[in-house]
Amino acid sequence: MPEAERSGCRWSAVRNGARPEQTRAKDRASMVIRHGNKKYEGKKNFQGVGKAEFRSVSWEQYSQEEVRWVQLPAGGEEGGRGQGSSRKRSSRARREEQEKSGLPEANHTACSVELYNCCQNPAWTEKGGNARKDSFRSRKIDKGSKGLPSDRTGVNPHSMELSPPPTGLEAESAALFTTGSLHFLHELISTFDEEVEKILQLRVSRKAHLDLSGELPNFLESTAHMRADPDWRVLPVPPRLQKRHVDIGDMAPCDTSRFIRALQSPAQGIQVDFDDGNCPTFHNQIKGIHNIILAVNNRLPGAPHISRAPVLMLRPRAWNMVEHNMMVEGKEAPGPLFDFGLLMYHCGRTLLEHQSGPFFYLSKVENLVEARLWNNIFIWTQQKLGLPLGCIKATVLIENVLATFEMEEILYELREHSAGLNCGIWDYSASFVNKFGHRQDFLLPDRSKYVNMEKRFLRSYMDLLVQTCHRRGALATGGMAAPLLPHRQHTHSYSTVLASVERLKLLEIKAGVDGFMVYDINLIKPMQELFELHTEGDNQLHRLRDDVSVTPEDLLSMPSGGVTLYGLKYNIAVGVLFINAWLSGKGHFFYRGQVEDSATAEISRSQVWQWIRHQARLEDDSRVVSRQLVTELTKELSTELSRLCPSERTKGSN
């Protein structure tokens, strides 16, 4: 929006949905919510509100091309879906309004395939014309189509297909895929599927641009004013999220016995995982979601009441994952929408009523556009289900080097729904290979010897994440401790493992994190005691880390070191064992005293590929890493791996 217009008029950014994204924290007191003839001012419960109107907005424009600005007439604004409001306006009326305002109508998540610069020059066009699809305009399910089994599903069989339930899960499947949930899933997926496709195209475009240009990421110039603004904050999180000291990580809910033990544990939260720690077979997805429904509704045997159990931090699959067992309008459903939709439909309201959610982890987010898409999905879902705006809270996992340069922007996009940011070591390290793997100067050395949170690039990443979060009133959490404590206490091996975990986690506490995760339930109490010993209160939000000054060079500084034969063998072993576990329907396994999941499998695979690509020489051997050498080592390891797997799996089953 032109500067003169922005400073001289009152504007409302409207998207067929109530979204308080056009206000800073200091402006939120002036929000006006209209529903029929009723008016709500200030920070009110948004339950049942049909449309949001922001008449006192002094928002510094963030991404003008990506918001449809409408000057509010004296008599009000366009109607929403709430009671007493008009239906959606015609496309002609929208065009006329846009022409009157002289402002561009833009696609808020589409991508330019030529250049990333999504905030500076988003020429969102397709085949020469603006082919924008309003993300909040839901497609209707054609109930009048021939052959529609309306008495069974209410969904056009030609627009939605669902695989038969896995053997033995017929009852669970029927409980999940009700008439209402199928309608909700269809509308959710058909509304946002194109937007998911666009962000995946944006990833490809950005990667190609980095490869061809040789450029390196940097902080966005177009959002510098937003980063420089000291006033805005994320909304405070609910009481149950104020203390996040120790969460259980990699908790695949299809593992019923471990899920119950986690619910019985003293942990602050549980990362209920459909991503890194889970193998998304149809059986696992249905079993896992059904177990969550039982737990939320206090029907899971042995589990405490949901209000007394650790908080469930639900982690749907990442954007690139699909659900092969559901087709919507001829396309496989995006995995994260399938997971999120079922969880929200069946559990959202109950979790809210018990002040225990709905809370989520969002993995593999790479930039502000992806965060904005999640925010749009949250708003749409809350409206559809009649839930208060802002009740969904989400922690974004910063697992990609590109996202590190947009952490403030990600918080800003999700500021009404943010539960903070999380940092982890292995997916983040693997992203360097994914984005810059062809460049010799980004050769990542042996991770088992040279890569840890004390290295400059990872220490800077954690320091910046903590500073960014606390500056904006958001919680900052660390990664997961993967080691498994030996069963016998008071032994040398037990003390050694515990001391190692305590040393690394103490570094995170001193950096200012508000919590972190462990896999082993037996590590919960020692880590909670570590927090109590070195911190005061529920969190460390008071530690603003003004001492931190991180540059792009700090974030992109590769650690020195080489490649070892041990490290190469370890990476090969993890890759092979993960494939074996995956084909067995498991998303994680145990090897040499710690849990391994898709995150460690990804860094292992990435390093082997990169070492072959650059013909890295082993520092403890004269050989060069090649495909032939990797093949030979894989054959040598096969006997050892087949012998170790069963014992390691048994040892780690706690």
Automatic annotation (TrEMBL):
One of its GO terms (cellular component) is cytoplasm. Residues 564-644 form the Malate synthase C-terminal domain. One of its GO terms (molecular function) is malate synthase activity. The keyword Repeat does not apply. Residues 311-557 form the Malate synthase TIM barrel domain. It catalyses: glyoxylate + acetyl-CoA + H2O = (S)-malate + CoA + H(+). Signal peptide: none annotated. Its EC number is 2.3.3.9. Residues 173-225 form the Malate synthase N-terminal domain. Residues 1-47, 71-106, 127-167 are annotated as: Disordered. GO terms for biological process: glyoxylate cycle; tricarboxylic acid cycle. Residues 93-102, 129-145 have a biased composition (Basic and acidic residues). InterPro entries: Malate_synth_C_sf, Malate_synth_sf, Malate_synthA, Malate_synthase_TIM, MS_C, MS_N, MS_N_TIM-barrel_dom. Keywords: Glyoxylate bypass, Transferase, Tricarboxylic acid cycle. The active site is at R315 (proton acceptor), D597 (proton donor). This is malate synthase. It comes from Gambusia affinis (Western mosquitofish).
